[in-house]
Amino acid sequence: MKFKIVATILVLLFAGSFPAFGQEEAIPAIFTSSPITNQLIVTIEGKAPPSSFVEVFRNDRSLGLAYTDQEGKFSLITYLEETETGINVFRARTAFPDGTFSEFSPALYITLDQAPPQAPVPDSTSLILEPTQYIFGSGEPGSTVFVLVDSIPVKEVPVDQGGRFSTGNLNLPPGWHDILFYAQDSAGNQSPFSPLVIAFSQEIPSQYAEAMTNLSQLGIMQGYPDGSLRPLNRVTRAEFAVFLSRTLNLANFTPPTSPATPGAFLDLPKDHWASQAVEFVSSQGLMVGFPDGTFRPDEYVKGKEVIAALVRAAGLEREAQAAQAMLKDAPWYAGYSLVGAQHGLLYPDFAPEEEALRGEVAVSLSSLFEILLQMGSTP
């Protein structure tokens, strides 16, 4: 295939018209062009001594002379050759007034890449999002993922060498949102759009944010590795045991409950990340296992379990039992709920049979922590 230079370079060939500069100033040119592109027509750019001539070669074939401006910049427009590897080699040298040239510059290898990257794939095509939640996914390593929310570009995030990306905090306003992704590689090629993600963002009560910030600063409820707190995430029984244990330890408070034999739960080995916390709360009678001998650490904790543990931790067990005796035919947690409400331990919109959220648990634990500080440490 025959290629031609797109830009015609006007060169004065007469020796007398060359600028007068000494040979010691005629240093090799330096390329500043990008080493990868998806365009056949490219501009080769670089620097050399101001007001001088630079001869540019592509794959050892001279493309002609380029003239540098007062800042020493030069440019030349040319075609790339579609070789099998897609790599074009450029070299340059500075011209002397006497018709000789400097040494060649370091080579510039421009890779022609016209293959689009694979479309990024989010981990889910239908998500319920919180304003603090991220979307994770996979894509072509080294590419950049562009995120569009309701057709508006909002994020540019890199795909790591393991092929993973995270959107970061999207800060979505409450309501339904359409989220699309596409990728772009370093050559400028764009992928097709990913599958549509339908997201719903809920408004977070201010009490959640305040309580979680407070507990995070105290080290009771730490965030996720990505830096988010995720107040609308549900809490597992193992997580709640850890939060409760940290609250009691920080308050230097021993619950006035009847110590129980630490449970050797069938589904909680010693090397489990929450085993020490579970052993502590179970030995104090704050949380109990199930009749089959399991603790079920990965099950989500329910409101009734949360309030029962908090009432016990605050030393209000007898009050709860007395209240329960007065509530005929009421479920077992009714007394705990009543006493918890009287002492400010219930979180907003408390629902005993529903799974507790991180923000809700944070509100109740913050109240418990204040109660324990007021009660003081036990000997």
SSE diagram, text form:
Blueprint: E1 30-31, E2 36-37, E3 41-47, E4 53-58, E5 61-67, E6 73-79, E7 87-94, E8 108-112, E9 121-122, E10 126-129, E11 136-138, E12 144-149, E13 152-158, E14 164-166, E15 175-184, E16 197-201, H1 206-218, H2 237-250, H3 275-283, H4 303-313, H5 317-326, H6 334-342, H7 358-375
Parallel strand pairs: 2-8, 10-16
Antiparallel strand pairs: 1-3, 3-6, 4-5, 4-7, 7-8, 9-11, 11-14, 12-13, 12-15, 15-16
Task: Catalogue the unreliable spans.
Answer: 1-26
Order of helices and strands: EEEEEEEEEEEEEEEEHHHHHHH
The DSSP helix count reads 7
* Oligomer description: single chain
Radius of gyration: 34 Å
Shape: elongated
**C-alpha termini separation:** 91 Å
- Strand arrangement within the widest β-sheet reads 2-8-7-4-5
Tell me what the structure shows:
- There is one protein chain.
- The protein is an alpha+beta fold and 379 residues long.
- The protein has 3 domains: 15-112, Immunoglobulin-like, CATH 2.60.40.10; 121-201, Immunoglobulin-like, CATH 2.60.40.10; 206-375, no CATH class.
- The chain has 7 helices and 16 strands.
- It has helices at residues 206-218, 237-250, 275-283, 303-313, 317-326, 334-342, 358-375, and strands at residues 30-31, 36-37, 41-47, 53-58, 61-67, 73-79, 87-94, 108-112, 121-122, 126-129, 136-138, 144-149, 152-158, 164-166, 175-184, 197-201.
- The strands form 4 sheets. A 5-stranded mixed sheet has the order 2-8-7-4-5, with no helix packed on it. It has a 5-stranded mixed sheet with strand order 10-16-15-12-13, with no helix packed on it. It has a 3-stranded antiparallel sheet with strand order 1-3-6, with no helix packed on it.
- A hairpin with a 2-residue loop joins strand 4 (53-58) and strand 5 (61-67).
- Helix 4 crosses helix 6.
- It is elongated, with a radius of gyration of 34 Å.
- The termini are far apart.
- Residues 1-26 have low confidence and may be disordered.
